[in-house]
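A common beginner's mistake is to predict each chain separately and then try to dock the pieces by hand. The better habit, illustrated here, is to supply every component at once so that their relative placement is modeled jointly.
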Amino acid sequence: MYSASDPRATLAPAAPGAPSAPSGLGYPADYVVFHDAPPAEVDPGGSRHWYARDHLNVAPWAPWPLAADGERIRIYSLDVPRVEGRLGRIWRCSTLMVNLSWPYEGPRDETKLSPHSHPDFEQGSLIVAGEYVHHIRWPWTSDRRAWREDEHVVCGSPSVTIIPPPTVHTSEGRGTGANHLIDIFAPPRQDFSERPGWVLNADEYPMPPS
Ligand SMILES: [Fe+2]
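With all components supplied together, the output reads:
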C-alpha cells in the first residue's frame, strides 16, 4: 500500500511558479507528481515496477467504450447539486472514474464511518485538503499466511493511497479545516455506473456491452 509517510509514494506539491489550481475548490490546491517506485517490502531491489506483475485480487484492466462523439478534452463544473442518495460527484471516461466527495470542515463523525470492501479492483484515494486516517483491515481467509494486522494510516495532503482489494476500508477525515478526498478507479466502476443518476456524464460515455 502506498503511504504518505513513504517518500517513494508521496505526491509532491507543485514547484514554485507552477500554474495555480483551477478555481472553485474552496481552498488552495497544488498540482501533484506521482512517484512510481515500488515499496521496498514488495520489491527490495527496486528494479521492477510495482505493477509489473499481476495482482492476485485485481481483475485484468480493459478500457471501456470511447465517447460516442470521439476523443476530446471535456470540462465539467464542480458545481453539482447535492441529491439525497447519490454518492459524491462522479464522472467517468473510457479508462477511469473519479468520485469527488463533498469536502467537510473538521473531523468526520466517528460514529458514522463507512467501512466496505470491493473484491477485484484497487482504489486510489487522493487527499487534496486536510488529513485523513485510512482504516484498512484484511479479511481472514482460509489462508492464514494472508492475514495482516489492521492498519490505521495517517495521510496528509496532497497524498495518494492505493487501497488494495479485498480489504475492508474507510477513510476518516480528521483535519480541523477542510477535508477533501477524491477517489479514482480504473477502469470505471461497474457498480457505480449501474446506479441511476450517479455518473454525471453517463450519457457521453457508454458502458461496455453486457
Ligand atoms: Fe472503497
